[in-house]
Amino acid sequence: MMTRFLFVLVIASSLCVWGEARSSSRAAWGVARIPRGGSSEDYAVACESVKAGIIEKASMSIDEMRQSIVEEGEVISDFGAKAESICNQAVEGFALSAPDAGEDTSAASVYDQMLETLEATLDAPLHVLYLQQLSLLRERALQNYRAASRVTETSDYEAMLQSDGQFTREAEASTREGSDWSFSAERTHLQSIMNDIAQTRKKLIDVQLKHSEKYSTAMTFLQSQQQMIGQLQQQLYGQSSPWNVGWAYRVPDTNFNVQGSYQQGRANVQVSCVADEYAPMLGPNGFTNGVGPGNLGLSLNLSV
């Protein structure tokens, strides 16, 4: 009887030692252990605690990306790959640190829900940063389009293709693989803006061309009218002289001013009575008492 009792005691002690060793091994891997008899609620609480720690760690990397995109306005190269790496590391960390569900179906369901919630929690802020990066890429593509575009329709079309291709490549690199992220709306918006710019430039060019045509038509009409007037003058007065002469003379000590001209074969003489405003400054007789440079003006033009 005593021998049987000692045998049972040895087996119980061995089981306790094996259980403590298994618990130590799970703790060494960072896996939480649910006490015997624990409910699914206890399992959910333990998983929630693990998930909170992983989200806090991943938020540090997301905040660094937010500072670069939002505050500094810089485009992060390979944004999609970096976002995918953050989510994968979080999922792997949760798989290693979460309690083992074992054969408990309710615990396994809680584990799957926690895993989906973890990925969705990290995907939401990353998607917001993704949309903001697309805005930066769109603005950069528009700047390149404005710089590369010219006044002709062909160069406008080529610049539009280059800017659209640049935006597409950078947007694809920023998209997280396996997610539902899409840049089609931003690409459509970019193409709409470039089309509006091209149409506005085309309208401006059309207005300038029409204005030039009207100006050219007006100048042609004026030249034709001038030629007709010259032809009529030749018919009425004969061949016009190339000499154009004009002269003016003020009679000394009077207000009489005599002006004459000879233009295109016709002479014209005009007498006017205009007071000399500079007489008090020049003295009672002006510069001279007769004809001289002070009271005689003469101009001569010869048309060849």
Topology, element by element:
Layout: H1 2-28, H2 40-71, H3 79-97, H4 105-148, H5 153-174, H6 184-237, E1 243-250, E2 256-263, E3 266-273, H7 279-282, E4 296-302
Antiparallel strand pairs: 1-2, 1-4, 2-3
Helix pairs in contact: 2-3, 2-4, 3-4, 4-5, 4-6, 5-6
Distinctive features:
disordered N terminus; rod-shaped; 304 residues; alpha+beta
- The low-confidence runs, each spanning 5 or more residues with pLDDT under 50, are 1-38
Strand order of the largest sheet: 3-2-1-4
Q: What's the helix-strand series?
A: HHHHHHEEEHE
Q: Would you tell me the overall average pLDDT? A: 76
Global outline: rod-shaped
What is the assembly state of the chains in this entry? single chain
Strand content: 5-15%
Structural class: alpha+beta
- Biggest sheet details: 4 strands, antiparallel
What is the radius of gyration?
A: 49 Å
Helix content: 55-70%
Please count the beta strands (DSSP E, at least 2 residues each).
Answer: 4
What distance lies between the first and last C-alpha atoms, to the nearest angstrom? 152 Å
Number of continuous helical runs:
7
What's this, in brief?
The protein is of the alpha+beta class and 304 residues long. It has helices at 2-28, 40-71, 79-97, 105-148, 153-174, 184-237, 279-282, and strands at residues 243-250, 256-263, 266-273, 296-302.
